[in-house]
Amino acid sequence: MLNKTISTQLYTEAKNYFPGGVSSPVRAFKSVKGSPLFIKKGNGAYIWDEDDNQFLDFCGSWGPLILGHNNPQVREAICTAAELGTSFGAPTRYENKLAKLILDNNRYIEMLRFVSSGTEAVMSALRLARGVTKKTKILKFDGCYHGHTDCLLVKAGSGLVTFGESSSAGVPDVFARETIVIPLNDPVALDEAMRTHADDLACVIIEPIPANNGLLLQPKSFLECLRLKCYKYGVLLIFDEVISGFRAGFEGAAGYYGVQPDIITFGKIIGGGLPVGAYGASREIMKNVSPDGAVYQAGTLSGNPLSMSAGYAALSQLTEVGFYENQERKTKLFCSIIQNHCRQKGYSANVKQIASIFWLYFDTIEITRADQIDPASMEKFKLLHAYLLEHGVYFGPSGYEVGFISAAHTEQMLIDGAHIICDGLDMVFNQF
Ligand SMILES: *Cc1c(COP(=O)(O)O)cnc(C)c1O
């Protein structure tokens, strides 16, 4: 049995300080067995908890750590910057450096603004879209997550095209009603929603690679259709690339699918493991942001030298030739071992994959919409999750979450990890 003595003590203490004992809800292990592990350190593809258990990590801090833990260049960049002070609330050369690297290597945006989280990036992008179009409503897709900003904490009501219902206490219905929610991969619902609401719709926001509620990969044709409809109805298209940015390729999902959005939001990888977000667009759109334009947005710690240095040190490694090809090849190898095992054994389980993102799910159908995920299948994930922890493999504590492979995962680590997962699946399907 996993020794969790210190983690358990710390969790007991933390529950006195924080709701649920955590700083972000999913960490509380409510969707899996047991209580959270408190992590002490990470290096490369591995993390260690406070009881010194070692795990091959497939969570990667939920996406930012595409280079693995404690990447030497990133660590050095942070330390070097820290020696000169951590924040000035004034412009620094570090912001230029990171912005130039991003903009020189992304054909889909011309200017950007740094913020401090993905949520903040999305919040600001929505305000910008509303400011530019002078319209108020937002269209989102069921199964896409965009952070915890009020008007996006909404879920679909009943019916094909619906006004959102708040999915959190504290979000006034009047905010939720500004948001229209439709299913992913449903051109008919999309057309109906756009036709009905075109006069009020400021923007459509989508995770072009939906990866927060399973991995709901969309056909390229759906994204193209969405693009055309937005042009047709004068609605701005926001790609929320907080996960897919710098993950599906340096140009994210926009580059992967070759679809031009109007505004892109970034987070996670962009900060090299420190808190950074950004939103970017054409010059034409970005000139509406204050102080040039009338859309107000600001941040005390935005663009601070530590975060900018970490981001630059991380992203500059991603521009190396072959980086993404190598990531994809390793991830495919890893997934194929699990896929083949499931097929051979006839298990109702499969792995979806894109770039270095994967999602293990307990079904065999192709899933492109949130409502196709069977909630009952999560019981199997709970068993698997506990088995994996016992055997030194760390998955994010929810079956709706995707896994990430980093540059620090070697082929051999991935082969070994995949075999442990296959053994875990044997255990699960023995019980079901
Ligand atoms: C993680 C995420 C967010 C929120 O980012 P935070 O940094 O957690 O605020 C927004 N959108 C998407 C697509 C995300 O994956």
Can you characterise this structure?
By secondary structure, this protein is an alpha/beta fold. The chain folds into two domains: 5-70 and 322-431, Aspartate Aminotransferase, domain 1; 72-318, Aspartate Aminotransferase, domain 2 (3-Layer(aba) Sandwich), CATH 3.40.640. 38% of the residues lie in helices and 16% in strands. The strands form four sheets. The protein has an eight-stranded mixed sheet, with helices on both faces. A four-stranded mixed sheet has the order 1-2-3-16. α7 links the parallel β10 and β11. The mean pLDDT is 97. The chain binds pyridoxal-5'-phosphate (PLP).
Question: What's this model, at a glance?
Answer:
The chain is α/β, with parallel strands linked by helices and 432 residues long.
Structural class: alpha/beta
- Total strands: 17
Q: Flag low-confidence runs.
A: none
Strand order of the largest sheet: 4-13-12-11-10-5-9-7
CATH architecture descriptor of the largest domain: 3-Layer(aba) Sandwich
How many structural domains can be distinguished in the coordinates?
2
Within the CATH hierarchy, at the fold level, what is the topology of the largest domain? Aspartate Aminotransferase, domain 2
Cα-atom radius of gyration: 21 Å
Percentage of residues in strands: 15-25%
Distance between the termini: 23 Å
Helix content: 25-40%
CATH class category of the largest domain: Alpha Beta
The small-molecule ligands in this entry are: pyridoxal-5'-phosphate
**Overall outline:** globular
Oligomer: single chain
Q: Main beta sheet: strand number and arrangement?
A: 8 strands, mixed
Mean pLDDT: 97
Order of helices and strands: HEEEHHEHEEEEHEHEHEHEEHHHEEHEEH
CATH superfamily of the largest domain: Type I PLP-dependent aspartate aminotransferase-like (Major domain)
Helix count from the secondary structure assignment: 13
